[in-house]
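FAQ: What does the model actually see?

It sees only this:
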Amino acid sequence: MTTGVKSLYTAKKQGVFEVASLPGISLLENLGLRVGTRVTVKGRYAFGGPVLLRVENAFLVAIGKDIATQIAVKEVACYESPQCPTRR
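And it is asked to produce this:
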């Protein structure tokens, strides 16, 4: 992965990220995940469980670890995001 890009599975909790690349799984598009989509990592379940995401500030989706490790994301600067905790 290139600089600034990481696996969705290793992305920090409450971070806002933009999807950089996806594996060729059509279900992801049905879940609203496309290159350029903004997601917020809401949680990661223990023992290799799924990652819980808020997609485009609209709905929650759980993505299994095996797929989440194949999704590349880059962090969005807080001031660019409506989800920034300091922004009201």
